[in-house]
Amino acid sequence: MIHQPHDPEVLQVMQSQALSAHIKYRLYILKPQPNVSREDVLHYVILSFIEAIESGREVRNPVAYCKRIAERYIIKQYDLCRQSILVESGTLEFLENIRYQKPSSAFDTDDIVYLNSQIARLKDCERQIIQWRFFENFSWSQIAVLLSSSTKVVSEQTARQRGKRALDALRSLYVNDSPSY
Hints:
Helix content is 70%, strand content 0%.
């Protein structure tokens, strides 16, 4: 059964000011990509909503259901945008030099070896967060998912706080135990 735009639920979603305002606000907050517009999100939401209805899924509150679809779509676009951000070549060279312990103009080999030894002294969870964030370039939302378990969900904000604590611990180890030259 194909639903026409005049079906009550679809029409309700298409005319919902609450849904439109929600999409506009989330796009303003996340700014996923310049080419993702409110209309794009609304079209995706309506198509997904129609597919849900056609599949026989019962939707008790169409506007709330569509807000959730919009939220997931915007976050997906945001994540895609964050993954595609180009990193300056200098930053990439810096990370590769540290990872493979190649000498660079910015660091002496001894400094890199010392930094790696200090990272190794961190707690496992701190070392893993440093690895994910700075060497594997994971976003905070990806790290939050990795830190979550079946019984405990870790938010992006919590992941950021843990990352800050891990960096503070590394800074403390690096500065307080630094060898004198």
